[in-house]
Amino acid sequence: MLKILLGFMFLGLCGSGGYWFALELKKREKFYLSLVDFVAFAKAKISFLQSNLKDLFLSFVGQSEDFKSLLAWRAELVESPSAKRPEKPAFLKDDEFEDVCAFFEKMGKSDVENECAILEEQGQIFREKHRKAEAEKDKKFGAYTKLGFALGCVIFVLIL
After folding, report:
1. Closest CA to 78 of 58, 99, 100
2. Which ranges of 90-160 would DSSP assign to H, the alpha helix?
3. 116-122: which pairs have CB atoms within 8 A and are 24 or more residues apart?
4. What is the pLDDT of residues 56-113, one digit of tens each?
5. How many helices (H) and strands (E) are present in the chain, helices listed first?
6. pLDDT tier for residue 33 given thresholds of 50, 70 and 90
């Protein structure tokens, strides 16, 4: 009886672990979706309303909590150039995080026309990254979940 209970515990634990790894893919996809939405939002606000930067960063509502922390950092950077960067999200690679931070640091450094051109160029890059993240999520999400469950089944059989 104890072996069966222990087996089910490992089954649940491994299944949850596989799902947790799969959620990292979902967070990555949401992050890039928020980034793409922000670029479109910023382009509209800058070209039509010519909003100031701090209001621009604080008024955007994204889907990703990690993206919101980057926006808060950038809004703080407007007033305090020595603002500390937020921690890198686990689902982003170092170079991707550097690219996103560099994008935010460059914002507001040129005139409206150039700023819109930069936003358009970056928007295309971020749309491509979002498309890749979405394809990776669609391809691997189910596999990670099933792999965790399968590992739990193997441990369950080994315990018995």
Report:
1. 58
2. 94-106, 112-159
3. 116/43, 116/46, 116/47, 119/39, 119/42, 119/43, 119/46, 120/43, 122/39
4. 888 888 778 888 888 888 888 777 777 788 888 888 889 999 998 888 888 877 777 8
5. 5, 0
6. very high
What lies within 8 Å, CB to CB, of 88 at 6+ separation is 94, 97
Sorted by sequence, the CB contacts under 8 Å of residue 4 that are 6+ apart come out as 160
- Computed on alpha carbons and rounded to an integer, the radius of gyration of the chain in Å comes to 21
* Rounded distance between C-alpha atoms, residue 57 and residue 78, angstroms: 10
**Taking the model in full, what pTM does it have?**
0.83
User: Quick one: which of 156, 157, 158, 160 has its CA closest to 9?
Assistant: 156
Q: Is the pLDDT of residue 152 over 70?
A: yes
The candidate with the shortest Cα–Cα distance to 89, out of 105, 66, 68, is 66
Look at 138 and 51; give whichever has higher pLDDT. Answer: 138
| Cα atoms found within 13 Å of the Cα of residue 148, Cβ hemisphere only | 19
